[in-house]
């Protein structure tokens, strides 16, 4: 038997189905029996049932206050190519996102700040060769 791991939207659609038939606590118990550790929490079930009771049957997540706006790495890369000396705060302001979001994306892109400039953590081949040449010059 294959291990089916449900996606979030699948679980939300199942919640909508059970909303018509059961109460949130019963639904939660059924989902735990069926999906085990992948089942939504009891609180999550209650929140979805509250939403369905209010007449909102859209199972997609709503944009919530406090959730950071999504942006493309290309936007961040373009800003860095324009000016690699921009601070985290300035980058966040330009992209209209939280400072921590920019920091996480920079880390994921392999960028670090050295001498107030954003540079790749891993050196390119030409940079390593340049450093080797400089070291050789100092040894003479």
Automatic annotation (TrEMBL):
Q: Which GO terms describe its molecular function?
A: DNA topoisomerase binding; double-stranded DNA binding; histone H3K36 methyltransferase activity; histone H3K4 methyltransferase activity; single-stranded DNA binding; single-stranded DNA endodeoxyribonuclease activity
Q: Which GO terms describe its cellular component?
A: condensed chromosome; nucleus; site of double-strand break
The source's domain of life comes to Eukaryota
Every copy of the Mos1 transposase HTH domain together lies at: 8-56
- Gene Ontology BP annotations: DNA double-strand break processing; DNA integration; double-strand break repair via nonhomologous end joining; mitotic DNA integrity checkpoint signaling; replication fork processing
Q: Which residues span the membrane?
A: none
Q: By its UniProt entry, which InterPro entries does this protein fall under? A: Mos1_HTH (IPR041426), Transposase-MT_Hybrid (IPR052709), WH-like_DNA-bd_sf (IPR036388)
Extract the Gene3D superfamilies matched here.
Answer: 1.10.10.1450, Winged helix-like DNA-binding domain superfamily/Winged helix DNA-binding domain
Protein's name according to its UniProt entry: Mariner Mos1 transposase
- Source organism (scientific name): Acromyrmex echinatior (Panamanian leafcutter ant)
Starting at the broadest rank, the lineage of the source organism is:
Eukaryota, Metazoa, Ecdysozoa, Arthropoda, Hexapoda
């Amino acid at each position: 038997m294959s291990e089916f791991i449900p996606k979030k939207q699948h679980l939300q659609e199942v919640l909508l189905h059970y909303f018509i038939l059961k109460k949130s606590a019963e639904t939660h118990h059924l989902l735990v029996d069926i999906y085990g550790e992948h089942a939504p929490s009891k609180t999550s079930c209650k929140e979805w049932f509250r939403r369905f009771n209010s007449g909102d049957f859209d199972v997609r997540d709503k944009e919530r206050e406090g959730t950071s706006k999504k942006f493309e790495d290309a936007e961040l890369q373009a800003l860095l190519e324009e000016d690699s000396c921009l601070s985290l705060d300035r980058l966040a302001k330009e992209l209209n996102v939280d400072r921590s979001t920019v920091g996480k994306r920079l880390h994921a892109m392999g960028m670090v700040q050295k001498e107030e400039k954003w540079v790749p953590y891993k050196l390119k081949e030409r940079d390593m060769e340049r450093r080797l040449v400089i070291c050789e010059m100092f040894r003479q």
